[in-house]
Design brief:
CATH topology of the largest domain: TIM Barrel
Number of strands: 10
Distance between the termini: 47 Å
Helix content: 40-55%
Low-confidence stretches: none
Number of domains: 2
Largest sheet: 8 strands, parallel, barrel
Shape: globular
CATH class of the largest domain: Alpha Beta
Order of helices and strands: HHHEEEHEHEHHEHHHHEHEHEHEHHHHH
Number of helices: 19
Bound molecules: iron/sulfur cluster
Strand content: 5-15%
Length: 428
């Protein structure tokens, strides 16, 4: 039985039990949220991942080859690095080399659910076979979606919300960055050249058939996400969101679980409104934010610009954060950038979890406060989001004073107060 259908019947499935045990949420409460569409359960073999209301905010890391850089070993190393640093899901966005083999290897080797964007491969194969992306036929697109599902991916991004109406609105709009989503760009080019409706919208019933067959979670893509602050929250973005809201209800009626992808480049002050709009229009479906990046002018530091946006989005209710690496807008990320991106997104997610009052998250920081006060360096390292960096910096210099660090050395504030007060500030 499909995860959503069993939740609607009030059945506590294996997935619900698995996730509720890890997230300290009652199974009945989680099942209700899944039935309402406010949470989804991704399945990866015997592993389940819950995303949505009342759950810890999850982090996704994108990996995958490009037409210029194809190294499957490096992608596996990125997968391992992302998981080691806490990614809850990974998307394989490969567009170069033997894409089938890369995807199958990643799915096989991954300890976390894998997502893909099948339209990339459908377009690439069409170009190889027929010479132009606009020659893609609908059968190819649906065959590739099913191929990915059959290979065991847990969720797919499908840009179903771009329609001919969206296109008309885009043409009339003053948008400066036009289309920055790769999947969105492929589909829009195809629609213009063929003067036809987006096949993912027109044949949404076929999307439903595949999703039902494999209990595949749909990540309804944001092909019209703004690519610059100047275009944030514009008509094109909202037009697509309205369509996604309608498709969400259709998917739910078909027993299919849905998450909604969101922007993009959004200034800090517009992030709360974006989250509220998504939640209202899509009836509480989990929100999967790509950043958002809060300024355009920091290439090389977009793991930071996006973490700032993600923390605010998470605080206001976003449920799933797609990391952005320092390579964003510049090139394919290497392993170091994958680690930096994952850590930045984890910090954003955890900060938002604290603000949302998640007990486990608050407890984690409480333990760190105790360890710091006691200058228990081993415990501090263990509790660190990046223990490798912890060691690298902490061990760089050695203080002449015992059990302090070289920031204040013998003038260590904690030690000074401890000496004169005679007690530690915090005791467990
Ligand atoms: S030396 Fe300064 S920074 Fe280091 S533990 Fe003491 S108070 Fe903290």
């Amino acid at each position: 039985m499909l995860e959503r259908e069993s939740a609607l019947k009030g059945i506590i499935s294996r997935g619900i039990r698995y996730v509720s045990g890890r997230e300290k949420i009652k199974p009945e409460v989680l099942a209700e949220k899944v039935a309402e569409g406010r949470a989804v359960i991704l399945r990866h073999g015997n592993i389940y991942l819950g995303i949505g209301e009342g759950l810890r905010i999850k982090v996704n890391a994108n990996i995958g080859t490009s037409p210029d850089i194809v190294d499957i070993c490096s992608e596996i190393e990125k997968l391992k690095a992302a998981c080691k640093y806490g990614a809850d899901a990974v998307m394989d966005l490969s567009t170069g080399g033997d894409i089938n083999k890369i995807r199958k290897t990643i799915v096989e080797r991954s300890p976390v659910p894998i997502g893909t964007v099948p339209v990339y491969q459908a377009v690439i194969e069409t170009i190889e076979e027929k010479g132009a992306l606009v020659k893609m036929d609908t059968e190819k697109l649906f065959e590739v979606i099913e191929r990915h599902a059959d290979d065991g991916v847990s969720f797919v991004t499908l840009h179903c919300g771009i329609t001919l109406n969206t296109l008309e609105r885009l043409r009339k709009s003053p948008r400066k960055t036009m289309v920055v989503s790769r999947g969105g760009a492929f589909l829009i080019s195809w629609m213009i050249a063929n003067e036809k409706e987006n096949p993912l919208y027109e044949h949404f019933d076929r999307v439903m058939d595949i999703a039902r067959k494999y209990d595949l979670v749909l990540s309804l893509g944001d092909g019209m996400r703004p690519g610059g602050i100047v275009d944030a929250t514009d008509n094109s973005q909202i037009d697509e969101l309205l369509t996604l809201g309608e498709l969400t209800e259709t998917a739910w009626k078909n027993g299919v679980q849905v998450i909604i992808e969101g922007p993009g480049h959004i200034p800090l002050n517009e992030i709360p409104a974006n989250v509220v709009l998504q939640k209202k229009i899509c009836k509480g479906a989990p929100f999967y934010v790509l950043g958002p990046v809060v300024t355009d002018v920091a290439p090389g530091y977009d793991h930071i610009t996006s973490a700032i946006g993600a923390a605010v989005a998470g605080w206001y209710g976003a449920d799933f954060i797609c990391y952005v690496t320092p390579s964003e807008h510049l090139g394919l990320p290497g392993i170091e950038e994958v680690i930096e991106g994952t850590v930045a997104a984890k910090i954003a997610a955890h900060s938002a979890d604290i603000a949302r009052g998640l007990k486990n998250s608050i407890e984690w920081d409480y333990k760190m406060a105790l360890a710091r006060t006691q200058r228990n360096w081993q415990e501090e390292k263990k509790l660190s989001i990046d223990p490798v960096k912890f060691d690298k910096i902490h061990k760089r210099y050695k203080s002449t004073e015992k059990d302090v660090c070289t920031m204040c050395g013998k003038y260590c504030a904690i030690k000074t107060v401890e000496k004169y007060l005679g007690v530690k500030i915090i005791t467990s």
